[in-house]
Write a structure and sequence with these properties.
Layout (H helix, E strand, L loop, with lengths): L9 H19 L3 H9 L10 H10 L17 E4 L6 H4 L3 H7 E4 L1 H13 L1 H21 L3 H8 L5 H4 L4
Antiparallel strand pairs: 1-2
Helix pairs in contact: 1-7, 6-7
The chain binds zinc ion (ZN).
The site of zinc ion (ZN) has 7 residues, from loops.
Length: 165
């Protein structure tokens, strides 16, 4: 299937807000497993994705691939680093932002996205920056953002206080 990744924004943007609300609700309810994930940041490698995170993303994505939107079978679900670990943008993100950038995709769609990034590195870099800006916008404008500060405490990023990014 041919996917033009330049135009894959609507689904990711919509789920960023849903994902943020989901995470905030879990922390607000005092769910320790989630608080730990938010505060300690697991590795999020291809081989290591906490089951909680994977299951939550499946629900948030209504069991559909973030790229092609077709149903996502359990035996063909990969963690998609929409902003990859290797991107310089990843290094500028704090743990909650990283978590908010992750999605699930089919193996073939995951590989196709990586291929697109290799073919169009400048577009990929622009995309990463724009997505981080979008995540920060969601965090800033979410009505629960004030409450996030309680969970993140000292790790609450300056970027949320200064909208210039
Ligand atoms: Zn797919």
């Amino acid at each position: 299937m041919l996917i033009t990744f330049d135009h894959q924004w609507a689904q990711w943007t919509a789920t960023t807000r849903t994902w943020n609300q989901f995470l905030h609700e879990r922390c607000a309810h005092g769910e320790l497993d989630w608080i730990r994930i938010i505060q300690q940041e697991p590795a999020y490698t291809r081989d290591h994705i906490p089951r909680l995170v994977k299951n939550a993303l499946r629900t948030i994505q209504t069991r559909r691939c973030i790229w092609c939107h077709a149903p996502l079978p359990l035996n063909d679900t990969t963690l998609e680093h929409v902003i990859p670990l290797a991107s310089p943008v990843w290094d500028t993100m704090f743990s909650l932002e990283r978590l908010l950038s992750l999605r699930l995709a089919h193996t073939t769609c995951n590989l196709a996205y990586a291929q697109w990034r290799r073919e169009y590195p400048h577009r990929a870099k622009r995309s990463d920056t724009a997505r981080l800006r979008r995540i920060r916008h969601v965090l800033r404008t979410d009505e629960d953002q004030i409450a996030w500060r309680a969970w993140l405490t000292t790790r609450y990023p300056e970027t949320l206080m200064h909208p210039s990014l």
